[in-house]
Structures are given as C-alpha cells and as structure tokens.
Design brief:
CATH topology of the largest domain: D-amino Acid Aminotransferase, Chain A, domain 1
Radius of gyration: 21 Å
Order of helices and strands: EEHHEHEEHEEEEEHHEHHEEEEEH
Shape: globular
CATH superfamily of the largest domain: ATP-grasp fold, B domain
CATH class of the largest domain: Alpha Beta
Number of domains: 2
Distance between the termini: 27 Å
Structural class: alpha+beta
Helix content: 25-40%
Strand content: 15-25%
C-alpha cells in the first residue's frame, strides 16, 4: 500500500474507492473516471430510462421508476391514472435515497401521499420504484444475486461476467407487502448489511445453506426442479450487456475529459457488482449496480459486547478470490511481452 502515492511506475494500480490519481501516465487502473457517479441510483435510472424510451422491449428488466423530488407530481399523476384504469391494481413502491448504500434509508410505501415521502425528498433526492411483488423464493425466503462483472475496456467495449456470484437472503419468510408488514426490512430487503443484524442471520461454511450462498448452488436447485438454467443465464448476460451499453456514452465523456486521446495515460478496467432479483417466472430484474462491490472474504463476529473478531467466510472466499484472480489474469500487463 502507498497511502501517499508512488513515484515509480506500476503495471497495475488498485484504488480503493475511485479514480483519483493525476500522476499516473501508464499502466492500468482498476477504476474508470466517473463510474461512481454513473451508477448512483438517479443517474442509472436516467440512463436506463433513456434506453427504455428508445427500445422498450429490450429494456424491460428495470422496474418502473421516478426521480424525486423533480418527478413527484408526475409520480402522483401516473399512479392515479393507472389505478383508475385498473382498480384491482394494488402496488407497492420502494424509495431509495440517491447516495444511499447498504440499504441505508430505503423504505416501502403503498401510496404516493405517504407523509415520509413528501417530508424527506426535498432534502434527500431519491428514486422511487415499483416494488417487485412476485420474487422467486428459495426456502420461503426472498433473495437477490450479486454478480461480478469486469468492464475491461470501453473502446472496444469488452465485458466479462464471473461464472459464479453470491445469493443474499432475507432472514424472515416472505409475504406479499401489506400496510402491516411494510416496515419489516428483514422480509422485504435483501441487503446483506441489513440482514446481518437480524437474529435469524445464518453464517454458513457451506455454499448451499445459510443467509449467503453461491449463485451456482441456487442454479443447481433450479435445474433439479426442471428450470431452464441456460435461458436464465442468457437473460442475465443480456441484462448486463444492455445496462453497460446504457452507461457507455456518458462514461466515455468522463474518460475523455480525464484521459484525453493522444496523450499518454493509463488504461482502465473495473469490477462492478450487479444486483439482480429473479421473479417467480425466472425473469431477471436489475436492482442496482455497485461501483465498489465489497471484496471482503471474512465477516465480523461479536465475541462479547463491543469485541469483534474477523471470521473467514468460505462462501465469499470461493466467489471473490476467483473474481480477483481472473481479473488480474485478464488485464495481465505481461501478456503482450511474452
């Protein structure tokens, strides 16, 4: 580690959070300029919605979304019109603060007139989305998938998807949202950093049990039930590619302003975390994209009040070590020299 930067050139620079070093003239950097801004909830929603307007059938993997506060009146109007045309429609919406991460500040509402919504959005911009009510359940629990995607270059666009990912489970059996259970985050929200505080969270040393499992273990179960796992994978790959295509135009603008063409500069690559929810019919839906997915392979365990120790997490290790190893192989700077 070089907390104060490094003067001698390196082959690969690995930054913790974002692209920030103006002294790098060569080599490869594990971050793209502007990526953190591009995958924030509002920017991502805008980019995907632009594509939804152009190609509605191709981009139907992202829930209907409105940006608050600016689209609040539009949100109220559209929900009213939809309810008038279909009185049986009883939607739920999920409000996600723009800069929030790890489940911070997310809550569910049944109606746009919810007081919390009108009170907080002026000070805290957010995206409100239609909540996906028919998730695929495993062991009666809702879960999402964290997939690791390597964006190796923008020109030409080169994308790799890790063959395995993590399945992160809720810790209370799922029920469709009602006014009585809207606040039960351990039932509705799959965020690992929320569920780890639940008394039902199970740290597992086995890839196919517990509150965090490998995605491959879920695919095995689906396959044994007769599901078409090949089609599921191809739908997921298509979702990833189309999402990155939606982000690419603005990413190129950031890239060219930081690393102008014709001048010496580093090339960039980045590991992204895609959070995907499977619906009951096995259709994958994009929840969000994370520019800095956690690469930790241990979890904190409280031994006594206030005393923690790090315990290895075999499931994280199995997936994440492979992601980092294969990334370094793919960007191997020595390859050209051999």
């Amino acid at each position: 580690q070089f907390p104060f930067g490094r003067r001698l050139p390196c082959d690969i620079y690995w930054h913790g959070v974002s692209f920030h070093d103006n002294d790098i003239f060569s080599g490869q950097v594990n971050k793209f300029p502007g990526m953190t801004e591009m995958v924030r909830k509002i920017t991502l929603s805008r980019a995907v919605r632009t594509m939804q307007d152009l190609f509605p059938l191709e981009y139907n993997f992202y829930p209907r979304s409105w940006i608050l506060p600016e689209e609040f009146p539009l949100f109220v109007d559209e929900v009213r019109v939809m309810k008038d045309s279909d009185p049986s429609w009883k939607p739920t919406f999920i409000v996600k603060p723009d800069g929030g991460c790890q489940g911070d500040g997310i809550y569910l509402i049944k109606d746009p007139s919810d007081i919390r919504l009108t009170g907080s959005i002026q000070s805290r911009p957010a995206v409100v989305q239609e909540y996906i009510c028919k998730p695929l359940l495993v062991d009666k629990l809702k879960f999402d998938i964290r997939l690791y995607v390597l964006l190796k270059s923008l020109e030409p666009l080169e994308i790799y998807i890790a063959k395995d990912g993590l399945s992160r489970f809720c810790t209370e059996p799922y029920q469709e949202p009602t006014l009585k259970n809207l606040h039960q985050v351990f039932m509705h929200l799959t965020n690992y950093s929320l569920n780890i505080h639940s008394g039902n969270f199970i740290h597992s040393d086995n890839a196919n049990t517990g509150s965090k499992r490998t995605f491959s273990s879920i695919l095995c179960r689906l396959s044994s039930r007769g599901a078409d796992v090949k089609k599921l994978w191809s739908d997921i790959i298509s979702l990833v590619i189309k999402t990155i295509i939606a982000l690419t135009p603005e990413l190129k603008v950031y890239y060219q302003s930081d690393i102008p063409a014709g001048k010496p500069g580093p090339t960039c690559f980045q590991i992204l975390g895609f959070d995907i929810l499977l619906m009951k019919n096995l259709k994958p839906m994009l929840l969000e994209v994370n520019a800095n997915p956690s690469m930790r392979i241990e979890h904190e365990q409280e031994l006594s009040p206030g005393v923690f120790e790090n315990v290895p997490s075999p499931v994280d290790e199995e997936v994440k070590v492979a992601v980092i190893r294969d990334t370094l192989r793919l960007v191997d700077p020595q390859k050209k020299k051999r």
